[in-house]
Amino acid sequence: MRANVGRGVDMVENLGHVLYHVLIILFPILVYYQFLNKGAIGITGKVNFRFLIIMIFMVICTMTFPIEVTEGSYYDQKLIPVILSFLYGGLLTGAAVVVSMLYYLYIIGDNHIFVMVINYLILAGLLIALRNRYISLSLKKKISSISFLFLVITATRAIRLFYLNEEKEVFLNVFVSFITWVSLVTAIMIIENLNMQMQLQHELQRSEKLKVVSELAASVAHEVRNPMTSTRGFLQLMSQDGNLNSSQKRYIDISIEELDRAQSIIQDYLSLAKPNKQGMDRVNVSKELVHVVQLMSTYTTFNNTTISHEIEEGLYIKANKDELKQVLINLIKNAIEAIDKDGTVTVKASSFRGMVVIKIMDDGVGMTPQQVERLGTPFYSTKDKGTGIGLTISFQIIELLQGKIDVTSEVGKGSIFSIKLPVETSESS
Fold first, then answer.
1. What pTM, to 2 d.p., does this model score?
2. Left if phi > 0, otherwise alpha if psi is -120 to 50, otherwise beta: which for 273?
């Protein structure tokens, strides 16, 4: 009777230790997203040192307080921060966590350090290969892919135990792996949900700004355009006066040009206030891209740049042709203006997994991550004379088409604007 009570007490203690390890994994993640992740949304290719410190803290804590499942047999969850660091931190973050883990094992005198090095090098290679696809997967597919990887790890451990004639340890290995898998899946779900909430909050803030601009445009555009039209008309009449000298005519021409520029800005605001959802038709993107590239070739000559294109034929989407052309002209024009001189703008288009992917690439000055984050925000522009409204409208048009614009950029190396739009297959559309 006492032996049964003793085993029950040991089981409760082991369960408590397992819960401690789950807390070690989940609590730092919650602390990071609550207090340390300000301004960082989703998965990023840059090293996030705060995330790196959290992962190193997790891996050291799991190794410092292991669970003794049987006499002389210990268990920890150091595998979880290693996987999370590669998938959500990138190659450098994952490598730093693995090196820190192995160095800590060396300090505490682990007897299997050489085997651990080989195992985690193989695991790192698998995670690096998986990460490129992992970023674009849905939550369900992410969990499925990680579960499959974990199943492979568990199977290899079981095979190793059979090879060492330690069949009694196989069940324990499976049980421990199950607990680790549950903790890992829980951590991934928390990270993905928190990332999604931050993204939704970011989009909500952006929508609020667009709403303010739309209301402002709708309320003042009419009152502003009327006096501007009258002023432009009188300036045109004055320019026909034969008593004017060349300087006076030049001043009038400049005034008319500036009024036209102001009129164009107001029209952009009106487009922002009243996005056009009518006139949607099946549009040949390939044909429109070639036409826009030819149209912008004269502008590239004027700016001492060149433009090239690699456009797959037969790409169709459902859109308003004029608005699509406006987006393409805006983005290509921005790419040309981002180049100082003797640069190249490359336009590529292809189909991929039911999406038309258009890439506009330049080798210009590039942008910082902070500048990229603010793109599409009204009143923000990296150009001296820009208002940011053109790019805001472009983002809004693509969103109305159920598409997305992704921007990657590096200072001094250039930028890539990737437009992803659903393929339109119905010819009767």
1. 0.61
2. alpha
